[in-house]
């Protein structure tokens, strides 16, 4: 019997380093794959999990493709053995990142998780529910995104945790860092945009 698409299959050995990339993936695109592969190498991760959200609380329901459709497209896009596509938030019964991380760290206490997010999310994370708890639960890696990086580094979250920022030469040790700890990765930029893809599909181009 096949494993349900929202569940993670397989044991996690102690010390496994896993990057968590959450989002609507509406749709998943080459930019998601690009930053995942960069994070795997730069942070010395064993895997990256894409947490395809059943419904992002900060995004409208209208225009959101069905979860099964987004999962299937994410699998086609990932195309890498170290990138696992999951909708584990449906299994966990969580909607907010802080709650998801709390349950994952409780379920897998010997796994070293790192929260991965784009610079746009670093800028807006103070709008997230219990956002400071995210920084307390797991180390955070912020990936550069076109037009957002400079503004993000001047935002509330970056300023609040300025003294806890990890340098690039410590990147491969981030997963084992005492929290709060975060790093800004100056990865090569990728032009893909889910919004642009949806607009192009809507117009038939």
From TrEMBL:
Keywords: ATP-binding, NAD, Nucleotide-binding, Nucleotidyltransferase, Pyridine nucleotide biosynthesis, Transferase. InterPro entries: Cyt_trans-like (IPR004821), NadD/NMNAT (IPR005248), Rossmann-like_a/b/a_fold (IPR014729). Its EC number is 2.7.7.18. GO terms for molecular function: ATP binding; nicotinate-nucleotide adenylyltransferase activity. One of its GO terms (biological process) is NAD+ biosynthetic process. It catalyses: nicotinate beta-D-ribonucleotide + ATP + H(+) = deamido-NAD(+) + diphosphate. It comes from the Bacteria. Residues 20-199 form the Cytidyltransferase-like domain. It is an enzyme of class 2 (transferase). Pathway: Cofactor biosynthesis; NAD(+) biosynthesis; deamido-NAD(+) from nicotinate D-ribonucleotide: step 1/1. Catalyzes the reversible adenylation of nicotinate mononucleotide (NaMN) to nicotinic acid adenine dinucleotide (NaAD). PANTHER family: NICOTINATE-NUCLEOTIDE ADENYLYLTRANSFERASE-RELATED, PHOSPHOPANTETHEINE ADENYLYLTRANSFERASE. Belongs to the NadD family. NCBIfam families: nicotinate (nicotinamide) nucleotide adenylyltransferase (TIGR00482), PRK00071.2-2 (NF000843). This is Probable nicotinate-nucleotide adenylyltransferase. The lineage of its organism: Bacteria, Pseudomonadati, Pseudomonadota, Alphaproteobacteria, Rhodospirillales. The gene is nadD.
